[in-house]
Write a structure and sequence with these properties.
Blueprint (H helix, E strand, L loop, with lengths): L2 E2 L6 E6 L10 E6 L7 E10 L2 H8 L16 E9 L11 E5 L13 E5 L3 E3 L6 H4 L3 H13 L7 H4 L12 E4 L4 H12 L4 E5 L4 H6 L4 E4 L4 H10 L6 E4 L6 H7 L6 E5 L4 H4 L7 E5 L13 H10 L7 E4 L7 H9 L28 E5 L11
Parallel strand pairs: 9-10, 9-12, 10-11, 12-13, 13-14, 15-16
Antiparallel strand pairs: 1-5, 2-3, 4-5, 4-7, 4-16, 5-6, 6-8
Helix pairs in contact: 3-5
């Protein structure tokens, strides 16, 4: 480690999964933190966000994600840099950051005191942003950006040039289906920053919110075929690109129908659907991209863009609900997810395993559950 706090933690109290398809209480254990790799940071977690995939990987026993037990999961955190690896540039001890945790090993997951993260999946956050707000940003941003990039709508160099000037009115708008979800809302904002007009679908109660984040037209997705006709009307014949942040059996066919006679592309956020969906049209391509596509070298600068957008206050963020007892509240948060008592926001799985999302169905809403590790009773006694 090239730079470290005066006293760097060598252990971390982590929430551990100890059973396959576990529904009994999770266990708090103290883990050893290994030496940092050259491009890694050690973050002291102030707040971590819950994603549906956290529960889905357990309920569906996704063994490629947790091949051995005990295991710690969680992909989103915000906190303070405690140490940096030898090759890290742009970060120093004490920086306030948000990061998408790799979660491939227990020490790289977020449900714990301290997490080892990649520098290129980390962004500094401004003082105006709380950790409780910031921890819910990384995965929606990563997922949406990967999809926007894969659709091919960003010109070369756009990572450093956004926002771009508005496209000519003759350029068809882009459709975001599920525009009030965490990923959909981020996609709306990224398309808008790239200069495109955006059509969003959502429930009527979210119309004003979706307009506020950048959609020019908003349509009630519950209207089904009537929604398709309205979208084709306002787009003057149909769109070229659809970002389906819902990616359910009822949304995909409707999104395809919104593509005009010239053909186009539809992006799904559920792994595997790009391979199993029959568009029924030779001129429509169904694609998948997820947050962990940001591991690709060409996309690694994306968190630099996120850092700049946050500094410019250029993104509208979702609200969060802080659970009262830190990591000991995760059992309750997961129970609420399983019972469908909280309208969680969709965050995509980081790997292409369709089963992960079987129980993690998209639900449009406005809150993300957040946990502060320091609020965990008896943390220092473990």
């Amino acid at each position: 480690m090239s730079t470290a706090a005066t006293t760097i933690p060598t252990t971390s109290v982590a929430l551990q999964i100890t059973e396959r398809k576990q529904t009994t209480p999770l266990t708090l254990s103290r883990l050893t933190i290994p030496p940092l790799e050259p491009n890694e940071l050690l973050i002291g977690n102030v707040a971590v966000a819950q994603a549906p995939g956290d529960v889905g990987m357990v309920d569906n026993d996704i063994r490629p994600l947790m091949p051995t037990l005990p295991h710690t999961n969680g992909w989103e955190t915000s906190g303070v840099v405690l140490a940096v690896g030898d090759d890290v540039k742009g970060f120093q001890v004490g920086d306030r950051v948000a990061s998408m945790a790799a979660a491939t090993k227990p020490h790289t997951a977020s449900y714990q005191e301290n997490t080892v993260v990649y520098d290129f999946l980390t962004a500094k956050i401004p003082s105006s942003l709380t950790h409780e707000e910031a921890c819910a940003i990384p995965l929606p941003f990563a997922t949406a950006f990967a999809g926007v990039y894969a659709l091919g709508v960003l010109p070369s160099g756009a990572l450093s040039e956004l926002p771009l000037p508005p496209k000519p009115n003759s350029t068809p708008p882009i459709l975001v289906w599920g525009a009030a979800s965490s990923v959909g809302a981020m996609a709306v904002q990224l398309f808008k920053l790239a200069g495109y007009r955006v059509i969003g679908t959502c429930s009527p109660e979210n119309f004003e919110y979706v307009k506020r984040i950048g959609a020019e037209f908003v349509v009630d997705y519950k209207e089904g075929e009537n929604a398709v006709e309205e979208i084709k009307r306002v787009s003057e014949g149909g769109v070229n690109f659809v970002y389906d942040a819902v990616s359910k059996p009822e949304s995909i066919p409707l999104g395809i129908k919104c593509i005009g006679t010239h053909g186009g592309k539809l992006m799904v956020v559920k792994p595997g659907l790009d391979k199993t969906t029959d568009a029924g049209r030779a001129d429509v391509e169904v694609l998948y991209a997820g947050g962990y596509d940001l591991l690709k070298p060409e996309l690694r600068p994306s968190f630099g863009l996120l850092e700049r957008l946050l500094a410019q206050n250029a993104l509208v963020l979702h609200t969060t609900e802080v659970m009262p007892h830190g990591l000991k509240s995760v059992d309750e948060g997961w129970r609420r997810h399983r019972a469908n008592e909280v309208r969680f926001l969709f965050i995509t799985s980081p790997v292409e395993f369709e089963l992960l999302m079987k129980r993690s169905a998209v639900q449009i809403g406005s809150k993300v559950l957040v946990y502060r590790p320091a609020d965990t009773p008896g943390l220092s006694d473990i």
